[in-house]
Amino acid sequence: MGKPKAKVDTKECLACGGCISVCPQDAISWYANKALVDEKGCISCAICIRTCPVGAISGDGAL
Ligand code: SF4
Ligand code: SF4
Questions:
Q1: Which of 5, 11, 18 is nearest to 59 (CA)?
Q2: Which CATH number fits domain 7-58: 1.10.10.10, 2.40.10.340, 3.30.70.20, 3.40.50.300?
Q3: Per-residue pLDDT for 1 more than 80?
Q4: 23 lines ligand 1 (CB under 6 A)
Q5: Residues 6+ apart with CB under 8 A from 50
Q6: How high does pLDDT run on average in the chain?
Q7: pLDDT band with cut points at 50, 70 and 90 for residue 3
Q8: pLDDT at residue 62 is higher than 90
Q9: 52 CB less than 6 Å from ligand 1?
Q10: What CA–CA distances, in Å, run from 24 to 19, 39, 59?
């Protein structure tokens, strides 16, 4: 098992784009007008979790 990866709750995502611009790995992109994390690219840095204005990104409680 690798580290837990960031995950977007699409019901909460406001599509502000903040997480996409801050991810150092460019691991977040748009999918169906919501942010989507590419788990293979995510290095579990949690920057996106701290950036999201509505708390829509989680890390299984471990990031
Ligand atoms: S935890 Fe870090 S690497 Fe993973 S999606 Fe968020 S900002 Fe990108
Ligand atoms: S920062 Fe939060 S609200 Fe903004 S696009 Fe990312 S997940 Fe959605």
A1: 5
A2: 3.30.70.20
A3: no
A4: yes
A5: none
A6: 94
A7: confident
A8: no
A9: no
A10: 10, 14, 16
Domain ranges of the chain: 7-58
Ligand 2: which atom is nearest the Cα of residue 8? Answer: 7
Q: What is the mean pLDDT of residues 20-44?
A: 97
* Contacting residues for 48 by C-beta, under 8 A, at least 6 apart: 6, 18, 19, 22, 23, 28, 37, 57
Distances, alpha carbon 46 to alpha carbons 10, 32, 42, in Å: 17, 23, 9
Residues in contact with ligand 2 by the CB-under-6-Å rule are 8, 13-19, 35, 51-52, 54, 56-57
